[in-house]
Amino acid sequence: MAADDEHTDRPLHREDEDIAAEIADDTETLLTLLSDFYRGGISQATSNQNRIDQTTNWAITLIAALLSVVFSSPDMPAYLLIVGIVILCVFLSYEVRRYRFFDLYRSRVRFVEENVYANALEPTGVEHSNWREELSDDLRNPTFKVTVTEALSRRVHRVYGLLFGILGIGWVAKVTMFTPESRWTEAAELPGVSGVVVAVVLGAFYLSIVVIAKWPSDREAKGEIHGEEPGEWKNQ
Question: What are phi and psi of 211, to 5 degrees?
């Protein structure tokens, strides 16, 4: 046991400390290392994309189940759809964090594609003159590439805006067309909260969803195809 401790505490040899520096000076070895790094980045990005898809699938399943239950009988309360909106917000919070991790790994993949593979196919110059230093710094000090606001906006714009809209339309239909025996204000009310207040709060919530989906206009997510015209290179 003492021998193991002595072996663990022994400092590294100088050759071991300089091995990475030697790789940096060897172009062939460095390109091999970058290929492995590229494949690893794709694997990490794919794994996080799958986690995002799983959350989205659960959200869709929740909506389908709630709509089936609420519209199965006139006696089912409309506030169940409001509960669904709250749960959907929880799923959205999970997706925002997972999207930021996904974008972190995807940005590294795009960085290698821009500065190594693109220039290898047509050597017209790299996008970043000090790309090796930038990538090295990001590996030593990893940071998210998009803000919470942008991640939230992207997920609402692409997926959750539609899901929230389905629940909202379902709620309006439930308190109006599917409860003919009572006024909509009575069908919409919660314990201690009038139906008018509930409707106003929901209206404000959906207005905020529209604002979030449209803002911010400037995107920082690297590798996103946003607002670009379709390319024609496949037709050439």
Answer: -65, -45
Please tell me the pTM assigned to this model.
Answer: 0.82
Residue 194 lies in a domain: yes
Instruction: Give per-residue pLDDT as tens, 178-193.
Output: 876 678 888 899 988 9
Cβ-contact 99, 154 below 8 angstroms? yes
Within the chain, residue ranges assigned H as helices are 2-9, 14-17, 19-25, 27-70, 79-112, 118-121, 131-140, 148-155, 161-176, 184-188, 195-214
Contact indicator for 181, 74 with CB cutoff of 8 Å: yes
Question: Is 236 inside any structural domain?
Answer: no
Domain that holds residue 41: 20-222
Q: Give the CA radius of gyration of the chain.
A: 26
Question: In this structure, what are the phi and psi dihedrals at residue 168, rounded to the nearest 5 degrees?
Answer: -65, -45
Express each pLDDT in 2-37 by its tens digit. 444 544 555 555 566 566 677 777 778 888 889 999
